[in-house]
Amino acid sequence: MASIVAFERSEMFEPWIGKSFGVPNVVGGCRLLILGESHYTKDLSKVGCTPAGFTSDVVEGLGIHGRHAFFGKLHEIVTGLRRGDQSPEDKIAFWNSVAFYNYVPVLVDGRDTKEGGAGRRPTDAMFKAGAESFQSIRREINPDAVIVCGLTLWDYLAPTLNQFEGPPRDVIYYDDGDTLYARIQHPSWAGFTTDKWYYRIHRLIEMTAEPRQAGRREVWTKVDG
Question: What are phi and psi of 25, to 5 degrees?
Fold first, then answer.
């Protein structure tokens, strides 16, 4: 269902890239990359590893063939189609229209804290290791826009972007000169509201039609919520 780009890498998951990425599709041909945080495993022997094909297997298994809340919410905030109304055909069309990549370049301990795990949280070193890998991915697939899933992820990513200044969480849209970014709360957060983020992402896609300007940003205000 997807074309897999071959990357020269030491540690890096291959992204999911839908067959209709960047051509007429359900997001109007926008080259949209959804940037998640991390993949998990409960097998301690695999923590820190980067299995080939892992991201595509997750998108196909949970995003297309499953009914996973994280993927359903992403589908909803991009297209406006409610999760309960997403047919198998809708899911195929949507995920074939976008790219998906997780920032942390290795598997994270997915055990609960009561089992001795870290509560499904990447370490600081894992987050920092994602910067170079992400930029390699970004250059390869050349997205028009990136949805950054999670404020913690944005805290790590934003300072690495071209000409970025200021506290990351003050910024809701950012232009690095090549790509537009929008940060959202993580879809797995209990307080995540799809209506709020649909309008943010709809505007992000509209903004891709404007000329790129490195350093351009829009700052959060109380009106934004």
Answer: -155, -170
